[in-house]
Specification:
CATH class of the largest domain in chain C: Alpha Beta
CATH superfamily of the largest domain in chain B: MetI-like
Strand content of chain B: under 5%
Radius of gyration of chain B: 28 Å
Distance between the termini of chain B: 45 Å
Largest sheet of chain B: 2 strands, antiparallel
Order of helices and strands of chain C: EEEHEEEHHHEHEHEEHHEEEEEEEEEE
Chains: A mainly alpha (310), B mainly alpha (329), C alpha+beta (358)
Helix content of chain B: over 70%
Order of helices and strands of chain B: HHEEHHHHHHHHHHHH
CATH architecture of the largest domain in chain C: 3-Layer(aba) Sandwich
Largest interface: A-B, 103 and 109 residues
Number of strands of chain C: 20
Number of strands of chain B: 2
Structural class of chain C: alpha+beta
Strand content of chain C: 25-35%
CATH topology of the largest domain in chain B: MetI-like fold
Number of domains of chain B: 2
CATH class of the largest domain in chain B: Mainly Alpha
Distance between the termini of chain C: 38 Å
Oligomer: heterotrimer
CATH topology of the largest domain in chain C: Rossmann fold
């Protein structure tokens, strides 16, 4: 009995230590998010009071009203900040448009290439890795050439050819095309891990029955990787939704994504507008975190990079 | 049984059919293997060439000019490799580069260690495991700008961090309202901490997938053979997790070297230049000071410099995958 | 009509040669089984007939048409795969209807033909289930129904029974044979299981190392294997082999000499083999055993099979031999035995090439 009791004691202690560590990390993860949420419901006086308020003493949704309303705003905001606050609807629209369309295009292109790589080893056996190099190049290194390309070379060329200066700088197309190119490697990688698992013989069977390759792809392969398509799309959408550097450097004032808008609040000359900022932060964080939780199970598979093989 | 209505071209049609209609011919053409394998390849390569390769060629050209935004592009003079010399001769460039490696190194090491410990603690089922996993993965989804913003609120002089520290500082007569982001070292670690907050989730995810991929029979076999938990960990878990570790190291290192968002959000490179990463430095040179040719040259140099790391990373990944395949067969 | 001719078929995978020149004529309506160990090229040959693999060189005729450049679906073949390849996201009905839908058959016609095929395979009750809800035998029938419904003149089968358990496999053999009789279609069947080949085939093609070793009716292959490889591949237990040489015997015939064995050979043995080294092959049922105190052999093990008993015995040669004896035989381990071989059933092979000598 003694050894059994001791091992049970040890197991209790292990469980206790484990939960202590996990809870500590949970606190570290949750606290900044909680603080944002709580600040978003605080009135201006409470934003930076000392000692800080752990929870809003005067609960208000004023901050949310400020960022979403079109009409006259709270008197404590300067004119400058008011104008910025106006733009959230537009930024939300811009972000949604660019991210959803660019993610979709990247998905379509990437799925076809992933299929070709998986089935025909297109580009050689190392091609799937070479594709990742694109993703590894720091965005700033891409941003500088793109700036010159969009703002100089394309207007210059179009003027020569068509007599009109067409710029891609600060356009939906310009930023979207870049998002397609930078997320393609991820689409290909994630879809490869799904497509690799569809047995060849299913396609062989379909082709023996007279189905063409497109028909086979549409009726056999794609339905079988449907969950992979959804997960990949959502993941790439989140990547684009979060992207900051390229949006900051290649757009504005015409096109503004949410991260860029939030950053402008941060650098507002009137001192930091913590409340509205927290409200925007909450608004743009909640949808992606919810999406993330929805695809969580599949992410573990998508990120296995071929480690999990059945 | 065969049915009298055989469509002209599809399926098991008799060999004596005429020329198929154009739509069918297109479908047949699309069905050919060489078409099917090359078209997506060409399409994707075209995107890369148009969006990545051509701009780089243009950038090489611009880097050879002497050009700032105060003058039209067409009037810029050719200056040879002057810009490259100026980039390489600039202390700030090298310091920003060194700082980037310092941030990335510190952050990645912390992320790997913490991510591994968390994945190890969570790799077996127990009550509450799913909830922990959900929480630990959440930071990955949070927009990085929001992370930077959140931490700026926590580090602020009258923020919650100082309130937590206050009981330890006030007895010594220290004003707890420390302006963390005004001290170079503290500001640097503030940025590293924000990165760790966000990206430990990724290393955690990769290690969790790694643990999920562990063949459980091997662990059971080791246990049956009488191995102690620590022996199982060092002799079975760790070697089998090598692929996951390599993937985590490569991916996180590459991403950490790009560090930009928290710098902009938290410190604007300050105090002084003590938190300028290479991405921030170049952004400032080009977008704030409009030194286009200089930025172009620096960008090319940086790409060459990073190419070494990228190929090292790719090589590690390829080798890892091939070793997995060998085990598989 | 549905006669298939393979002319000098070769397939390379990179530097590896999978199929090294196969000539074969498959008659209309026959049940032909290609058999051989894994890696012998049988599946690759089948895949070249089906069109899933492109031959490196050589020609494939179906009827009198060269089909090398036809897509798999255009050759009028049906195929059953080793893993059955049922579409997991479709119901059994949709699986069976797949080929008809590809051909844009009318819905009423689809319904009618799917039901007919399902009834023929006795799976009419399963139509609304998913393949994952079917048992192994049911899935097998679904796969067959899916092929039958397209009414192909040739059925290709790639080890279709290998996923079944032993009992079911025996039942399905009989059923496949019935199916073949009923459909009167050409069956080309690939397996590594010699028993499957023996029981079902009209003709067997034995392959090894990318080449055809022998083509013939099952009994012909069993009784007159063309090479040592074929002799060893067919039959349970494996044929006994002895290394030795052929020499002129005491009488006017030849005899085979090996360590402690002198075996007279039948009169039909060609005289040309005299004086050369040879491998003698003899099946267990052609080894005669008799209890004898001064016999050369000693029983090491007996395996009663019910209708007969296998007796393994040592005789001082390089390997033990096995004999089939009556189940009531009193022989047990340790018993000394005398043995000799039925001279009409002794097979001689070249020890180098493995080719048959007599």
């Amino acid at each position: 009995m003694r050894p059994g009791g001791r091992s049970r004691l040890r197991r209790y202690r292990q469980a206790w230590v484990r939960h202590a560590i996990l809870l500590a990390w949970t606190f570290f993860i949750v606290f900044p998010l909680y603080w944002m949420l709580s600040t978003s419901f605080k009135d201006a006086g409470e934003w930076v009071s000392w000692p800080p308020h752990w929870y809003p003493h005067e609960f208000t949704i004023h901050n949310y009203r400020q960022i979403f309303t079109f009409s006259a705003l709270g008197e404590e905001l300067s004119r400058d900040a008011t104008e910025q606050a106006f733009s959230i609807w537009k930024a939300l629209g811009d972000s949604l448009l660019i991210c959803s369309v660019a993610s979709f295009l990247a998905l379509v292109l990437g799925v076809f290439l992933a299929y070709a790589i998986s089935r025909f080893a297109v580009g050689g056996s190392k091609f799937r890795h070479i594709i990742l190099t694109i993703r590894m190049v720091p965005p700033i290194v891409i941003a500088i050439p793109i700036l010159m390309y969009y703002a100089i070379m394309i207007p210059f060329t179009t003027e020569l050819l068509f007599g009109a200066r067409i710029t891609l700088f600060d356009t939906y197309f310009g930023l979207g095309a870049l998002y397609v190119a930078t997320t393609l490697p991820f689409v290909i990688w994630m879809m490869l891990s799904f497509i690799d698992e569809v047995p060849f013989t299913l396609e062989h069977a379909a082709r023996m029955m007279g189905a063409g390759r497109m028909y086979t792809l549409r009726r056999v392969v794609l339905p079988l990787v449907a969950s992979g398509l959804v997960v990949t799309y959502l993941f790439v959408f989140i990547l684009n939704w979060s992207e900051f550097l390229l949006a900051l450097t290649l757009t504005h004032p015409e096109v503004t994504t949410l991260p860029v808008l939030l950053n402008k609040f941060q650098s507002a000359s009137e001192g930091r507008l913590y409340g509205p900022q927290a409200a925007i932060g909450t608004v743009i964080t909640i949808p992606v975190v919810v999406l993330g939780v929805l695809i969580q199970k599949h992410l573990i598979k998508g990120f296995s990079f071929g480690m999990i093989r059945r | 049984m065969a049915g009298s209505r055989q469509p002209a071209a599809a399926g098991a049609a008799p060999p004596s059919r005429g020329r198929p209609p154009p739509g069918r011919r297109l479908a047949a053409w699309l069905s050919q293997e060489r078409v099917f394998r090359l078209i997506p390849f060409i399409a994707v390569e075209a995107v890369f060439i148009l969006v990545i390769i051509i701009p780089f060629i243009l950038t090489i050209y611009i880097s050879l000019l002497r050009w700032r935004a105060n003058r039209p592009f067409e009037q810029a003079n050719f200056s040879g490799f002057l810009n490259y010399g100026r980039v390489l001769g600039k202390d700030e460039f090298w310091m920003a580069l060194g700082r980037t490696f310092y941030f990335a190194g510190a952050a990645v090491i912390l992320e790997l260690l913490i991510g591994f410990v968390l994945a190890y603690l969570l790799h077996r089922h127990f009550r509450g495991r799913r909830l922990y996993i959900t929480i630990f993965l959440a930071p990955m989804m949070v927009v990085p700008v929001v992370v930077g913003y959140n931490f700026s609120m926590i580090y602020v002089d009258s923020g919650p961090l100082n309130e937590i520290l206050a009981p330890f500082l006030e007895p010594f007569g220290i004003d707890p309202r420390i302006r963390w982001l005004s001290h170079p070292l503290a500001a640097q670690w503030a940025i590293i901490l924000a990165d760790v907050w966000q990206w430990t989730s990724l290393t955690f995810l990769i290690f969790l997938s790694g643990f999920a991929a562990l063949p459980q029979q091997l662990v059971d076999a080791a246990r049956v053979l009488g191995a102690s938990p620590s022996q199982i960990f060092w002799r079975v878990h760790l070697p089998l997790l090598k692929p996951a570790i390599i993937i985590a190291v490569v991916i996180r290192s590459m991403e950490a070297l790009k560090m930009f968002d928290p710098v902009v959000l938290l410190t604007f490179g300050g105090p002084g230049i003590s938190t300028q990463t290479i991405a921030y430095y170049l952004w400032q040179e080009v977008w704030v000071f409009n030194k286009y040719s200089y930025g172009a040259a620096a960008s090319i140099l940086l790409l060459i410099f990073f190419a070494v790391f990228i190929f090292l990373g790719i090589w590690l990944l390829v080798r890892q995958r091939e070793s997995v395949r060998r085990v598989d067969v | 009509m549905a006669e298939i001719v393979l002319r000098d078929l070769v397939k390379h995978f990179g530097s590896a040669v999978a199929v090294a020149g196969v000539h074969l004529q498959i008659e209309d309506g026959e049940f032909l089984i290609m058999v051989g160990p894994s890696g012998c090229g049988k599946t690759t040959t089948l895949n070249m007939i089906s069109g899933l693999e492109t031959p490196t060189s050589g020609e494939i005729f179906i009827g009198d048409q060269v089909v090398n450049d036809l897509e798999p679906g255009e050759r009028g073949l049906g195929m059953v795969f080793q893993d059955l390849a049922l579409f997991p996201h479709m119901t059994v009905f949709e699986n069976i209807a797949f080929g008809l839908r590809v051909k844009k058959t009318e819905e009423a016609e689809v319904e009618r033909r799917v039901r007919a095929a399902a009834d023929a395979m006795h799976i009419g009750a399963l139509l609304d289930k998913r393949p994952s809800e079917c048992s192994g035998g049911e899935a097998q029938r679904v796969a067959l129904a899916r092929t039958i419904v397209n009414d192909p003149s040739v059925f290709l089968m790639d080890e279709p029974l290998s996923s079944l358990d032993a009992k079911l496999r025996l039942d399905m053999r009989t059923e496949l044979k019935h199916l073949h009789h009923r459909l009167r279609a050409t069956f080309v069947y690939v397996t590594h299981d010699q028993a499957e080949a023996m029981t079902m085939a009209d003709r067997i093609v034995v392959m090894e190392g990318g080449r055809i070793e022998q083509v013939g009716a099952p009994l012909e292959i069993y009784r007159r294997p063309a090479s040592r490889f074929v002799a060893g591949f067919f039959g349970v237990p494996t044929m006994n082999f002895l290394e030795g040489e052929v020499a002129a015997g005491a009488g006017d015939g030849l005899e085979f000499r090996s360590t402690r064995v002198v075996q007279p050979l039948s009169a039909s043995t060609p005289a040309a083999v005299a004086g050369s080294a040879a491998t003698l092959g003899v099946r267990a049922e052609h080894v005669r055993l008799a209890p004898s105190d001064d016999g050369a052999g000693r029983v090491t093990l007996t395996e009663p099979l019910g209708d007969e008993t296998l007796v393994f015995f040592e005789f001082g040669g390089s390997a033990p031999l096995v004999a089939k004896v009556d189940p009531d035989s009193p022989l047990g381990p340790g018993d000394p035995v005398a043995f000799d071989f039925d001279r009409d059933w002794c097979h001689l092979f070249d020890p180098e090439s493995g080719a048959r000598l007599n």
